[in-house]
Amino acid sequence: MSEPTTNDINTILANFPVKDSSSNKPLNLRSHELLPASRVDIYARKFPRLSSGVAVSATYENEDKEVLEYIVHIDPKTKAPTLILQECSIFLEEFPPSQIVEYSFQPNGPWLLSNCCVNAVEMYRQHKFSKWRELFDHASCEAALRRLLKIGLIARLYDESAFPELEEDKASWQVTDERTGKLVHIPHPVHALRRWDTTSQAYVEVPCRLEGAPSDADVDQYWAKLLEELYRLYGKEYIEGLMSSAT
Q: Which of 7, 56, 90, 157 has its CA 20 to 30 A from that of 148?
């Protein structure tokens, strides 16, 4: 069976009711276009069905006149439409991909779809720095403490559930607890966050710097003070030994 034509897509969307993922109230279709390949590639990592068929970016208007984007996948064989929704792991609600934050661990990508909506990310930013600091006082094992010391101060958002590594990179951010044999995940800070803005039809930056983290100018001073605290807690020779070890 052939791919859906423009007329097919018009008819399919006109007869495919969509409700606001937040209010569950019907939305009014405004316009639609094929989802750009660059965005298809990002979403297809999490939704493999987008690798075939037609992915449509459809904009709708809610009762407050707010414009929202939803992604609709049209099956290449049956032409059946499916709404693409991602659950936020914090709020446990489903959102369209444009309301889910994207993240990258490197300056040049790749960009990945996270498991958090924008509001959840903002909530994470408010307490993750203190959580990172607590890891030094309650390190689960020597290997974890060694990696934390080698990574140094983390001032950007991290979370293994919200921002997971690609499968081929996971092992680089895990150590084995010598006592239990269990894998321990090491905090992996993101390089940048962004979200799709439906109104401007462009990506906009989402802040990723942790609240409470020192400014760039104060990082060295903060780290030196932290090391002094760790010297008192664990012993200077022990900490310096971990920092200088090869593994």
A: 90
